[in-house]
Task: inverse folding
């Protein structure tokens, strides 16, 4: 995974609560066996009209936001299914950071594993970022959001932050603990219960 | 003094990783076609193998047709979907993972197959690349849904780095009234604590009503834990659990069975153990529930009227107005007035034999209302066979319902079982998000009895009037 330390980009506001994973990437695009190419289907039902043309009212279709790399959202972002296609679609579109008051658990984990930062900040901060306009800088080392001369703090799971800063290959890291895993398996077997 | 969750967690910690994380041993891993291809591809690219294939079980369920199974994957019309299923078949062959093929009578929805085969066991950790993995917690297993990167991690290492959840006891007090069941309890709970109310928590369901439930109802309850934001739902195992599992193909036998049961009896929260949160839900006066909005917390009794957005503070008022508009419902409209186009009976929430029996009780000797399309999709081949042995398929067919092959079907509409724009559906599934069952489709979540009542009445209806 690519390391993440600091990112500056345009922040698109999509400040609704409970944006679920069906909303982020509808099921008809889950038939893929690839991780790539999902960006054009991101927010499909909102972004495109029934005839396939772009809905000009949707934020990511508006001038100034088409190249957005940060998303400002409402609470419980990413609720619903476990599909990792949600962070894959966001990343493939070019989103590197989602800033929201809270995230659903599985989505948050999936994001960290792919180098997408789920940054937690209260609604006031999200409003302030929107009001500031212009590019937003997300500094994961300092845990700071900066825009239009203002600075606000954000929070992030400590383990997820460490993994992102390091660009950790988690499987590699776990495989280095193989002796501990084998010892655990041996102990369980000896105790007569390998469920 | 420990909670059930703490016992399960502590027994599986391989190593403490700091930052509130631990490396957990994973006993059981269910794999399906939609969330696994990229994980297997990752393994192949890194030259890794599946560390414990015998702890893994694969089956295709999400993205398969429910009309005809005789041809296996070759019978899937859509090329991309077919490729996804054949990719699973190639991967399980290449990595030596046990697999239940499409045409096998044991094929079905992962969360129905696991318990049926005795793959799901009390005291085990169980994961699957699917959020409704919480279902298996009904057996006292620590079960939770994971993403594809985690699927790859489990395949490669048989472990997962996890953060310990907070514990949340939900006491379901009182006895369930007639016509009211586990689905209603789950919906009412989500209505009460909200769809993010359980985020970061493991729910443990306790209380008289839960003890009185069969395994299938307990699975329905734990299945819906994720709709309250909780990755894990739990019920402590008891005689009901053991009776369900005894003799299942993958359950222990003989002396190992006895030893296992003895150990499983210790899997209960010790008296006096503390939970981080507690919630009591008295169900003795509960009505059959139905969702009116676009997420599972938008729920009310069947005798209720849709809410008025004006009664809520902002920003909730706006969300309610938006949901009602999407659903095509007037503020204050009685829910029992809403005519349905489609009824879906199935899914990992309500696709088991007990659910089909509940629906058949209402449909026996009656007919679905004219113009209402009713899809009955058994959760597995074994459920289908049992239902047919009891003659339930005839009840459904005679009532004008379509009787299908097992799979996820219209729960998420990845295959061709979808709602058309604007269609209203009474569904026994678990998510009523916008577009979940088809673009612009309108989903009302209900119990199997309520779905059957809607089929007969041609509108949302009170199952108690049809018993
Ligand atoms: S039945 Fe529905 S909720 Fe259950 S696993 Fe299938 S798609 Fe997911």
Result:
């Amino acid at each position: 995974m690519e390391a993440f330390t600091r990112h500056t980009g345009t922040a698109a506001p999509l400040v609704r609560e409970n944006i679920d994973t069906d909303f982020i990437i509808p099921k008809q695009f889950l038939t893929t066996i690839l991780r790539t190419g999902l960006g054009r289907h991101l927010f499909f039902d909102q972004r495109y009209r029934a005839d396939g043309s772009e809905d000009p009212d949707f934020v990511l279709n508006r001038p100034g936001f088409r190249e957005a790399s940060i998303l400002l959202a409402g609470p419980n972002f990413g609720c619903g299914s476990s599909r990792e296609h949600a962070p894959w679609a966001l990343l493939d579109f070019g989103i590197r950071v989602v800033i929201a008051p809270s995230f659903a658990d599985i989505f948050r984990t999936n994001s960290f594993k792919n180098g997408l930062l789920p940054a937690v900040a209260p609604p006031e901060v999200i409003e302030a970022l929107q009001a500031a306009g212009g590019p937003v800088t997300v500094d994961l080392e300092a845990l700071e959001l900066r825009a239009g001369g203002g600075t606000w703090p954000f929070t992030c799971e400590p383990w997820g932050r460490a993994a992102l800063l390091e660009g950790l290959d988690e499987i590699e890291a776990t495989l280095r603990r193989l002796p501990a895993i084998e010892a655990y398996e041996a102990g369980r077997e000896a105790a007569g219960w390998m469920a | 003094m420990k909670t059930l969750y703490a016992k399960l967690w502590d027994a599986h910690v391989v190593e403490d990783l700091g930052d509130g994380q631990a490396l957990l041993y994973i006993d059981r891993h269910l794999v399906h076609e939609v969330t696994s291809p990229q994980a297997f591809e990752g393994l192949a690219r890194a030259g890794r193998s599946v560390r414990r294939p015998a702890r893994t079980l694969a089956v295709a369920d999400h993205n398969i047709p429910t009309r005809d199974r005789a041809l296996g994957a070759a019978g899937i019309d859509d090329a991309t979907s077919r490729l996804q299923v054949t990719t699973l078949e190639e991967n399980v062959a290449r990595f030596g993972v046990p697999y239940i093929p499409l045409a096998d009578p044991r094929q079905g929805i992962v969360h129905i197959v696991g318990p049926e085969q005795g793959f799901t066991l009390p005291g085990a950790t169980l994961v699957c690349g699917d959020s409704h993995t919480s279902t298996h917690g009904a057996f006292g297993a620590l079960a939770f849904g994971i993403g594809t990167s985690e699927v790859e991690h489990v395949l490669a290492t048989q472990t997962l780095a996890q953060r310990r959840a907070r514990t949340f006891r939900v006491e379901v007090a009182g006895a369930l009234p007639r016509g009211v069941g586990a689905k209603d309890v789950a919906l009412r709970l989500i209505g009460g604590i909200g769809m993010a109310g359980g985020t970061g928590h493991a729910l443990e369901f306790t209380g008289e009503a839960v003890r009185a439930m069969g395994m299938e109802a307990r699975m329905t309850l734990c299945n819906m834990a994720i709709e309250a934001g909780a990755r894990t739902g739990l019920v402590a195992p008891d005689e009901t659990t053991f009776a369900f599992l005894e003799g299942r193909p993958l359950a222990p036998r003989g002396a190992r069975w006895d030893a296992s049961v003895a150990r499983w009896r210790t899997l209960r929260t010790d008296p006096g153990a503390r939970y981080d949160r507690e919630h009591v839900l008295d169900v003795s006066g509960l009505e059959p529930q139905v969702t009116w909005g676009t997420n599972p917390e938008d729920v009310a009794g069947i005798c209720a009227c849709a809410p008025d957005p004006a009664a809520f503070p902002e920003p909730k008022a706006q969300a309610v107005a938006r949901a009602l508009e999407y659903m095509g419902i007037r503020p204050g409209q009685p829910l029992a007035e809403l005519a349905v186009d489609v009824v879906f009976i199935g899914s990992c929430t309500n696709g088991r034999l007990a659910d089909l029996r509940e629906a058949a009780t209402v449909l026996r000797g009656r007919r679905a209302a004219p113009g209402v399309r009713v899809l009955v999709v058994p959760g597995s081949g074994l459920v289908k066979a049992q239902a047919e042995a009891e003659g339930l398929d005839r009840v459904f067919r005679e009532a004008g319902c379509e009787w299908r092959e097992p799979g996820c079907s219209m729960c998420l509409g990845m295959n061709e079982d979808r709602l058309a724009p604007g269609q209203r559906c009474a569904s026994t599934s678990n998510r009523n998000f916008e577009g979940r069952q088809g673009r612009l489709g309108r989903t009302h979540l209900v119990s199997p009895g309520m779905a059957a009542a809607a089929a007969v009445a041609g509108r949302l209806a009170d199952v108690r009037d049809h018993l």
